[in-house]
Amino acid sequence: MSTSLVTGAVTNRTPQRSWWALAVLMLPVLLISIDNTVLAFALPSIAEDFRPSAATQLWLVDIYSLVLATLLVTMGSLGDRFGRRRLLLIGAVGFAVVSAAAAFAPSAGYLVAARAAIGVFGAMLMPSTLSLIRNIFTEATARRLAIAIWASCFAAGSALGPIVGGLLLQHFHWGSVFLIAVPILLPLLVLAPKLVPESRDPNPGPVDAISVLLSLVTMLPIVWAVKTAAHDGLSAVTLVAVALGVAAGIWFVRRQNRSATPILDMRLFGHGPFTASILANFLSMVGLIGFLFFISQHLQLALGLDPLTAALVMLPGAAASTVAGIGVVRLTRRFSPQALIVAGLILVAAGFLLILLFRHDLTIVAVIASFTVLELGIGVSQTISNDTIVSSVPPEKAGAASAVSETAYELGAVIGTAALGTMFTAFYRTNIELPAALSPAQSADAGESIGGAISVARTLPTELGDRLVESARAAFDSGIAATASTAAALTLIATVIVAAAFRGRDRR
Fold it and tell me: CA-based Rg of the chain, rounded to a whole angstrom?
C-alpha cells in the first residue's frame, strides 16, 4: 500500500516494491544531474592546473552534454528494444569506470575525451530511468508523484552538484569530483536486478541502423556548429555543418514516417502539449545552465569565495526546487497543467530579472534570492512538463519519449553554455584592460578568461596583480545585463508557447 500525497488516501494500486524501485532509480538520476553542474565549480582548479584556452574550458563543460544529447534518442530506442534495465546496468558500469579514469586525467585534452566517453554511458542511463518509471507506475496519480520525485531529484542534483564539488574541492584534488560516480552507482548495480523489473517493447521490430546513423548525423553537426559559431563566429565550415545536419534531419523524419517500427514516432510532435513541454524544458535549461556557468565563476573569482562557501550559496535554491517539484503535485487537482507550467516559467524568468536588477551589486544575498526564485520555477514547471511528455505515449514507447525529453535537457545545457557562456567571454575580452607591463604570453592568458587573469596576477608584483584582478572582475561582470535579459526572454517565449499549445485542452 502507498499513501497519495495528492489525496491523502491509501490505495492498493501501487505496491510498496514500486516505491523501493523508484528509490533505486533515483541514484543514476542524481548522478547525471550532479555531473551536469559539478564541473562548473571544479573548472577554476582545472584551469589553474592545465591553463586551457577559453574554448577548451567550454568544451570541458559542453562535451558531456553534447554527446549525451546526440545519443539519447538512439539509446532510448535501444532500451525499448533490448530491455531498459539491461541498458541501465551497462551504462552504470561504463559510467563508473570512465569517471574513475577521468579523475586522473594528465591533460585538458585527455579530460575532454573522458567526458565524451562518460556522455556515451550517461545516454544509456537517463532514458532508462524515466521510461522504467512510466512502466512501473501505471496509476496516474502515483505516476505523477513518481515523476515529481524524478524531476525534483534531477533539479536538486543540478543544484547540489556545485555543493558536492565545493565540499570535495575544499579538501581534495579536482579529480575527486569524478570519483563520486563509483559509490553512487555501486548500490544501483546490486539492487536494480532485485527491485527494478525489466521492461521492453513487446513488438519492437528490427533495429534500423540507417535511422540510428541519421540521428547522430543530424544532432552532432548542428550542435557543434552552434557552439563553434557562438565562440568563433559564422564560417563556411559551420554553415556546411548546419546544412549537413538539416539534410540528415529531413531524411531521418521521412524515414521515420515511412517505417512501421520507427526509432522515434514523429506523430508525437503533432500533439501540442507534448511539443510545448519539450520546448519549455529546453528553453528553461538554456537559462539555468548558462546561469550556473556564470555564477560559479562570479562567486569564486569575482567575489573571492572558496569553492565550499560558493557552493553553499546554491543550497537554498536546491531545497526550493525539491520542495516545489513535489509540492506542485497537490496543485494538479485544482489547476490545469498549462497554468502550472506557465506559473513555473514566469518564476524562472523572474529569477533572471532579479539578476538584472542586482547586476551592479551582485552580492551573495542577491545571488541566493535570484537562484531561489529561479529554482522554484524549475521545480514546478519541469515536474508537470515531464508528466505531460511521458503520459502522451503508450508504455511500450516510453523509452523514445523519455529520450526526447532528456534530449531537450541536454541540448539546453549545451546551448546554454555555448551561447550564454560565450556571451560572457565576448564581454570579458572586449572590456578587459591589460597592464602594459605584461609579457605577450601573460597578456594572452589574462585576456582569454578571468581564471587566466587571476593565475597571471599571482605571478606579478602585488600592485600590478591587484590592478589586473580588479579589471578582470569588472570585465567579467560586464556581461550580466545581456545574458540575464537573454535568458529571461527565452523563458518568456517558452511561456507563450505553452499557453498557446494547451489552449482548449481538457484542464485535467
Answer: 22
Instruction: Give mean pLDDT, residues 6-20.
Output: 62
The conformation of residue 180, written as its DSSP 8-state character, comes to T
Q: How high is the pLDDT of residue 399? A: 64
pLDDT at 465 > cutoff 90: no
C-alpha grid cell, residue 85: 534495465
The hierarchical CATH code for the domain 14-197+263-431+478-501 is 1.20.1250.20
Cα distance between the two ends of the chain: 25
Q: In whole angstroms, what is the distance from residue 497 CA to residue 279 CA?
A: 8
Contacts of 236 (CB under 8 A, 6+ apart): none
- What's the rounded Cα separation, in Å, for the pair 239 and 235? 6
Q: Give Cβ neighbours of residue 289 (< 8 Å, ≥ 6 apart).
A: 36, 37, 65, 412, 413, 416, 417, 420
* Nearest C-alpha neighbor of 313 from the set 324, 302, 323: 302
Res 416: pLDDT: 77
> Which band of pLDDT confidence, cut at 50, 70 and 90, is reported for residue 449?
confident
Domain residue spans in the chain?
Answer: 14-197+263-431+478-501, 208-262
Cβ burial of 260 (10 Å; 0-12, 13-18, 19+) is: exposed
Q: How many CB atoms lie within 10 A of CB 23?
A: 13
Please, which pLDDT band fits residue 463 given cuts at 50, 70 and 90?
A: confident
| Torsion angles phi and psi, residue 228, rounded to 5 | -70, -45
Contacts of 195 (CB under 8 A, 6+ apart): 17, 20, 21, 24
Residue entry with cell 508504455: 395
